[in-house]
Design brief:
Shape: globular
Structural class: alpha+beta
Largest sheet: 4 strands, mixed
Number of strands: 4
Strand content: 15-25%
Number of helices: 5
Strand order of the largest sheet: 2-1-3-4
Distance between the termini: 32 Å
Helix content: 40-55%
């Protein structure tokens, strides 16, 4: 991965305490899994930043390489990769997501 792309991804991740790479926007998710993570975060009252990977193919492919995780959405808390939809939902159900984001 080229350094410029890595720096841009890291800058996005670190721009908010909770950050989501998703398809679409929080107001208009473009896939069910992205919509599920947005819904979970909103239900828990966790503020988050986001990036629409459909708007930038370099970031869309780069984030997969950056985390070695093949799918979108990808959630980060305090700069650390947490996971995708299923992991986020499981963490929300156990109370771990609120604790980690607090």
């Amino acid at each position: 991965m080229e350094q410029e792309l890595k720096d841009k991804i890291e800058s996005l991740i670190n721009s908010e305490k909770v950050f989501l790479f998703m398809k679409g926007t929080p107001e208009m998710p473009q896939c069910g899994f992205s919509a599920g993570v947005v819904s979970t975060l909103k239900q828990l009252g966790i503020p988050f930043g986001s990036f629409n990977v459909l708007s930038d193919m370099k970031i869309r492919e780069g984030i997969k390489e950056y985390t070695n995780w093949p799918t979108i959405p990808q959630l980060y808390i305090k700069g650390e990769f947490v996971g995708g939809h299923d992991i986020t939902v499981q963490m929300a159900q156990s109370g771990e997501l609120t604790k980690k984001a607090g």
